[in-house]
Amino acid sequence: MRGGLSADGEAPLFPFLRGEQLAGLDIIAETAIREGKTPGAVVLIGNRQEIIYSRAFGFRSLEPKKVPMSEDTIFDLASLTKVIATTTAVMQLAEKGTLDIDASVARYWTAFGENGKKRITVRQLLTIIPVSGPA
Fold first, then answer.
1. Which of 4, 78, 83, 94 makes the best surface tag, with the fewest CB within 10 Å?
2. Pick from 70, 65, 67: nearest CA to 54
3. Interior angle at CA 47, CA 41 and CA 53, nearest 5
4. What residues are annotated to the active site?
């Protein structure tokens, strides 16, 4: 495992990055699994020319039976849309002053306020804070 080369194939893109230097990732992944934070993980680091580090840890399924994680496990990334795309976009709007995350969602989307949801805030949607009682 070695760093990749630049587009001209001459100079290393990441001459300072070697697979051996990434061995600490093993400890991070194994600790997360041991502490029950995740059943498994796949870590892949690379560039256009090569894979610098690739390793599977733990299990991809625990029930009905344990199935070991593999480097070719396919993940459903749809569940990451809120975390990566939506949250980033909302925070950029908040940073510009276009959106107040502590305002009611109904302020921006009137129909959302129907059926007792008038007091639910943008922040609550982003953090999945439970809302109790009628709004």
1. 78
2. 70
3. 40
4. 79
